[in-house]
Design a protein that fits this description.
With 109 residues, this protein is mainly beta. It is built from 1 helix and 7 strands; from the N terminus they run βββββββα. A hairpin with a 2-residue loop joins strand 6 and strand 7 (88-95). The relative contact order is 0.22.
């Protein structure tokens, strides 16, 4: 916790941007395929909302359907946190590697 304001310090290296787009996820540990919607993205992470609960620590494959008419962006990541939100699951996913080219596509669309 930060001594000044009582909130945990944000240690992100890459800036987070609001971005709403459909996504398909495969939870490799639970063996299930899910549909989700992104809330925000950065070069190293994605915030999503989906109908089913995601489990922190589970590994995912993700296909982000960027609105640029090209193939979905494929990447892999790990669920870092998940919580209920308005009857759905809101989760933060840490990507295995920085998706700089993918971020450029998202920001252009």
């Amino acid at each position: 916790m930060d001594e000044n304001n009582g909130f945990k310090e944000d240690r992100r290296i890459f800036e987070r941007f609001s971005a709403v787009m459909p996504a398909n996820l495969i939870d490799l540990d639970a063996g299930k395929e899910l549909e989700a919607t992104t809330c925000d993205v950065s070069a190293k992470g994605v915030g999503v909302v989906c109908e089913e609960h995601l489990t922190p620590g589970n590994r995912l494959e993700l296909w982000l359907r960027i609105k640029d008419g090209r193939e979905p962006l494929y990447t892999k990541g790990t669920v870092m946190w998940a919580r209920p939100e308005e009857g759905k699951c809101r989760a933060g996913i840490l990507l295995e590697r920085a998706e700089l080219m993918g971020m450029a596509r998202i920001l252009r669309s």
